[in-house]
Specification:
Length: 468
């Protein structure tokens, strides 16, 4: 017997899986888009590589370096690659820039292991590299997995040598050894946060000594000899190098239905890629579209490539200088304050294995679309942006009117912990901003999980935002 739906049930807010509304054509678009996204992930394992990929894709789509643009007009497309780590792009709109821009900001840095300035040493006839972890990691994640080394070495003569070892099938890989369970009694009795020490994250890189019994540290010397033969470097060159140890595996489909992607670095390169693709699809927007890809978010957005620097502000000043007959500080301030912004960053998805850390009524789910987060911060919203209701209402209507699947949630239970994004640093300029990104499982692990339908929904959401 069919039961008649009570009219009051129409008042309920009942999010549904975005997969329910995907016809065959849309399914094809979703899967094709994510194949390109996986390729981007495989070529973008460091912030330098991400910036290079973003700049290359943008320039192939008509963006020109802002230093080469003498005068801008509606439809002009410019790019600024700062220190090969932060990338800013703009498509000039038809309305005066003083009325504000539509800005999307993401970050390209990822938790990882950096080599120390003097990393190479020998112990027990093995050669190892000392590391200093970057960002919020669980140290045990990095034991017993294959690692690749990505980096750049800057020689005294000014030459820069890029280096990647461990990604090609013919390359050797590296690893940090784990302790066998047979002898791990003391380790297993420690708290998880203390079982592995930061100074114990040393990477195994060699084991064959030089054929000379009269030298000290023959295995270390043999490793140095190989590096010198292959790249022309010496041990002192490590002092002016940036080396990052990252998982040596590619992005993969997850699930029998291939509905998900597993990869290192999806926080936040999923938002980097989707917002980049979105701005490349913009022709002549009403308001100027601005896409910023910043560094250092995982350690507080510090440094001159992070959002806390004035790099973004300087880029906007360069735009104004080329748009107006004369630069005006007041116009810059009005432009920034009148802008609307999305902080494009990931959030925690509801994990069936760890439901107790999220509050179910206010948690995002994989497959339910792009995720809005009104506030992040810690416990009592400390360091949160906390978007205004009026702006959330505008974004909610924008997405709904354009059939963009969206959901809203918090990062976790109130007293469980928390986290932050660049939203509060964008809000410094007076603009309205809300966090808007993709929910992940296993965030900050070496193999983060996203839903392909959410990735595509983020791209759609960012494209609609740029266009209005």
């Amino acid at each position: 017997m069919n039961q008649t739906k009570h009219p009051a049930e129409n008042l309920l807010y009942s999010p549904k899986s975005a997969w329910h509304n995907t016809g065959q054509n849309l399914m094809s678009d979703i899967f094709a888009f994510n194949e390109e996204y996986k390729s981007f992930l495989n070529q973008s394992k460091t912030e330098r590589e991400t910036a290079a990929q973003a700049a290359s894709l943008a320039q192939n789509n008509g963006f020109v370096p802002i230093t080469e643009a003498k005068q801008l007009q509606p439809g002009s497309r410019v790019i600024f690659n700062y220190r090969n780590k932060a990338v800013m792009l703009a498509v000039i709109g038809s309305e005066p820039i003083e009325q504000g821009c539509n800005i999307i900001g993401s970050h390209n840095d990822v938790p990882r292991l950096d080599l120390k300035p003097n990393p190479l040493y020998e112990k027990n006839d093995l050669a190892l590299l000392k590391t200093h972890y970057y960002g919020g990691i669980k140290k045990y994640h990095w034991l017993g997995i294959p690692l690749a080394l990505h980096g750049v070495i800057c020689l005294k003569n000014g030459t820069s040598i890029p280096l990647i070892i461990g990604e090609d099938a013919s390359d050797p890989v590296f690893t940090i050894t784990d302790l066998l369970p047979h002898l791990a009694k003391d380790q297993m009795n420690k708290k998880m946060s203390e079982a592995i020490e930061g100074e114990g994250l040393n990477i195994l890189v060699g084991g064959i000594p030089l054929k000379n019994e009269n030298v000290t540290n023959p295995v270390k010397l043999a490793v140095l000899e190989k590096l010198n033969q292959q790249f022309g470097i010496t041990e002192e060159d490590f002092t002016s190098a940036e080396f990052e140890a990252v998982p040596a595996w590619p992005a993969r489909d997850v699930g029998l239905d291939r509905s998900m992607i597993g990869s290192y670095g999806q926080d936040d390169r999923v938002c980097v890629y989707t917002s980049l693709k979105a701005i490349m699809d913009v022709n002549v927007p009403r308001n100027t579209s601005v896409n910023i890809i910043m560094d250092k978010e995982e350690i507080g957005s510090s440094g001159n490539t992070g959002m806390a620097a004035r790099t973004f502000e300087n880029f906007m000043a360069e735009l104004l200088d080329r748009l107006l007959s004369g630069y005006s500080e007041l116009v810059l301030r009005r432009c920034l304050a009148n802008s609307k912004a999305l902080s494009a960053d990931v959030t925690a998805g509801m994990d069936p294995n760890y439901e107790n850390v999220l509050e179910k009524m206010n948690a995002c789910k994989l497959g339910y679309g792009v995720a809005l987060t009104k506030y992040t911060g810690t416990r009592g919203k400390v360091h949160a942006n906390d978007a205004h209701a009026e702006f959330l209402g505008y974004i909610r209507k924008l997405f709904s009117d354009n059939n963009i699947p969206w959901q809203i949630g918090e990062l976790g239970k109130v007293d469980q912990g928390g986290g932050g994004t660049i939203a509060y640093l964008m809000a410094v300029y007076g603009m309205d901003v809300v966090d808007c990104g993709v929910p992940l499982l296993g965030m900050h692990s070496p193999f983060e999980i996203s839903s392909k339908v959410d990735v595509y929904a983020a791209y759609q959401a960012y494209k609609v935002f740029f266009s209005h």
